[in-house]
Protein 1
Amino acid sequence: MKAAVLEELGQPPRYAEAEEPVPTDGLVVADVRAAAVKNIERALAAGSHYGSGRLPLPCVLGHDAVVALPDGRRVFAGATPPGGAMAERLLVDPEQTLPIPDSVDDASAAALPNAAASAWFALEYAGQIRTGQSVLVLGGTGVTGSLAVQLAKRRFGAGKVVAAGRNVERLGRISELGADATIELGPADEPVAAQLARHHAEHPFDVVLDYLWGKPAEHVLRTLANDDLAAGFHRTRFVQIGEMAGATIELPAATLRSAGIELVGQGGGSVPREAFGRIRSEILPAVFSMLADGTIAADTQVRPLSEVTDVWTTRAPSGVRVVLVPDR
Ligand SMILES: NC(=O)c1ccc[n+]([C@@H]2O[C@H](COP(=O)([O-])OP(=O)(O)OC[C@H]3O[C@@H](n4cnc5c(N)ncnc54)[C@H](OP(=O)(O)O)[C@@H]3O)[C@@H](O)[C@H]2O)c1
């Protein structure tokens, strides 16, 4: 069968022949309908992810897909390289799959689960969000950030959601998706600092979801800091999730002493193992149901699997998830 095959870390995958999956021990061969290209697969293949060293090479990339089971049911399924999801066919355990509502298209169903599970945990577990609270999403223009904005507003009842990003066109779309306000992260520092300070003064941020780190995170932490020993206490949970703007920051020690900042992270190792069961039992069914009734939306671009190398080397528009569909 044809698949997106990675032969060497740091190189893009090629559309090439891969081993045909063989049914075994309750696992069945399903036809892949759509597999999303996410940052985690890009980072693993690039060799820049902490898990890259464990990627068996050569391998078929892709951690999840929408598939058709042999009995015709359309479901969402997980995958593990070397038998990844960016292929014509995939070995799946039908018991571990999730049904997809008829009104949800393949591309949206493939695009959202990873982002949804992460955004949900970031808000509920790491952010400990409460109804009416004020949320800042740094990098709200991205796929995961956009979903975090929607979930914060429409699932967790945030009182105010501010989305910050550098892509002005995409910020407009984020307003349509539910952000109460947006901040353009332009090249000049002062306007960004002034807008952050205004929003924090109006309705102090309770939760910050940070998909950027780097300079934007430094701006926010400076905004949260106090310069007055008598300043009132306000707890802000700063949740570190992605590093699109830089892998490191400068953080003056006094910032953490001057305000109620709680610096936490969201990722594989920062969520208790027992919570992962909720992704299948609770979180993804809720996300599919919100997609089905239009409460949340995904912006996707469908490309043929045969174009995987081009997909890998070209940037997708901001906030749009590319979904690979096998050529039939
Ligand atoms: N830990 C987890 O559980 C988890 C889960 C999902 C994602 N993530 C991470 O979170 C990050 C975002 O994921 P995503 O799925 O939303 O990615 P995405 O769809 O590729 O979006 C990335 C966004 O970041 C913006 N951006 C890039 N560099 C920037 C900069 N220097 N300043 C401001 N904005 C910048 C991009 O805007 P432009 O269009 O302007 O480039 C784009 O809107 C990634 O690092 C990803 O690996 C972590």
Protein 2
Amino acid sequence: MPSRFRQSRPHRIHRIAPASRAEENRSETSPMIPTEKLSAVREQFPVTRRQLYLDSAHQTPLAMSVRDALASFLTEGFETAGPKPVWLRRVEETRVSVARFFNAAPSEIAFTKNTSEGLNIAANAVPLEAGDNVVLIEGDHPNNAYAWLNLKRNGVEVRFAPLPDDEIATATTFEPYIDARTKVVSLSHVTFHAGQVHDLMGIGKLCKERGIYLVVDAMQSVGVIPLDVKALNISVLAAGTHKGLLVPQGLGVLYIADGLDELQPAYLAMSSMANPPADYVARPDDMAVRKDALRFEFGNVNLPDVHALSAAIDLIQSVGVAAIQKHVLALGDLLLEGLDALGVSVVGPRERGWRNHIYVLQLPVETWADYFARNDVRVSPERGGIRVSLAMFNTVDDIERLIGVIRAGLKTNAFAAIAHID
Ligand SMILES: Cc1ncc(COP(=O)(O)O)c(C=O)c1O
């Protein structure tokens, strides 16, 4: 690959002149995952041998260890028709791992189906009266919006704070929309459509000061950004597990802060009850629900996925979420640098700290989505262009290959007018 970008290719990150904004944002203290470890990680993801996979924000490819966990679950099912006590014990072990992931207690974690279920559980658990309001970000993921918009039929007002795609939400974004009747602020940590990383620390502080519940959709950040629910003052966090948590669709995790006893479940099952009847006969005279987050866990959960999640968390922890974040940020620096050289812009913010692993390239979806597919590059069409999302198994070579594919695309007649090629 010719060009400035090729010449500047760092194995260790270094500066080239003239300094681009990406370089200004670059930190020498953000090394990538060391080569040997990265090779081992890459071995775990066979998809990396088949295509250029840059779509983890859509869904994770499966790792070998996750497949093995699913396979052993199936073997147990075949051979023993299910050692349920063993399976249930593993659920509790996985709950402990998930809790550790968020700096929460196991009693604060429930397993759900996905992010939407967690957000709907939150929306129906918070005590809200007609005239109360909830503040969201305009254009945030619809699964967050609909959970709250559904409360309009109870007279709850839903307010949307506007936000440009290249900025992040801070306390200041929400302040003008908050009043004495504001009970909830709910937002994605990382946005799927522009990759913004919102300032949860500042927003959490504001919510604490004003006595507002902070509900966070962590679908796009979990596993890729360290999350400390206590430090961030999060009341409820909901996430699915099929992106940064590396397992197939159908399992979600829900954090409900201890002590929020006024949050009550809209559904009940035996598993939610403080005194589940040993004889399996429901007791209308004892409707006390559990005090922990399990009051929001209804019946059997997705056992194969829970087992897979345990293996996935082990894999993630073998690298460390902080190291994964540094890795994807360093690759993001390179990506921005390569895009700058080609004259291709991104939709979202460029500042480090405001972005992480999601970069939406301003390339028209109609032509470029097919072009990338034809070149074995897996990316997603998005509102503002083509979404590239990075994961722990991506490498400098992946970024170079992507830049090379874009460069070649820009040189063809069909795309020549879209961006300037130097
Ligand atoms: C921010 C965000 N929230 C939620 C979801 C998905 O919701 P669910 O887990 O309910 O399918 C996605 C994408 O899949 C997302 O990007």
